[in-house]
Amino acid sequence: MNYEELLSRLVHMKNAIISLHEYLAPELKTRDLAILKYGFTEKQISQLDNYFREIVFNNVRPSKEDFRKKLAEIKNLPDLTDEVLEDVLLGYKSDGMYVNIIDEILKK
User: DSSP letters along 8-55, please?
Assistant: First the structure.
């Protein structure tokens, strides 16, 4: 299998997973699916995980807007939609990560 075939198959698999993601119950939308759907790089994933750890260690409770700004900064975008923000947060929550913090962010 050459490089182009492999790349094509990977793109098809990613698109299939993204389509599946749209129809899953919220508790099945995992962190990994959300990260794949929005094309996070390894560096961006690390930055997001570090941000969550910083929130926990410093006992900070960011607002939804603060979290959106930080996520947009990590993705190097001017802004992000509510859908992206909520998918990422619910993905982490579904995996049992930072549940209390995420609940607080989503309420604000």
Answer: HHHHHHHHHHHHHHHHS-GGG--HHHHHHHTT--HHHHHHHHHHHHHH
Contact 88, 32 (CB under 8 A): no
CB atoms within 10 A of CB 31: 22
How does DSSP classify residue 58?
T
Element (H, E) at 60: none
Distance, in Å, from the CA atom of 87 to the CA atom of 68, rounded to the nearest integer, reads 12
The answer to whether the beta carbons of residues 105 and 98 sit under 8 Å apart is no
Q: Residues with Cβ < 8 Å from 90, sequence gap 6 or more?
A: 26, 29, 34, 102
pTM over 0.85: no
How far apart, in whole angstroms, are the C-alpha atoms of residue 91 and residue 11? 21
DSSP 96: T
> For residue range 48-60, what is the model confidence (pLDDT) as tens digits?
999 999 999 999 9
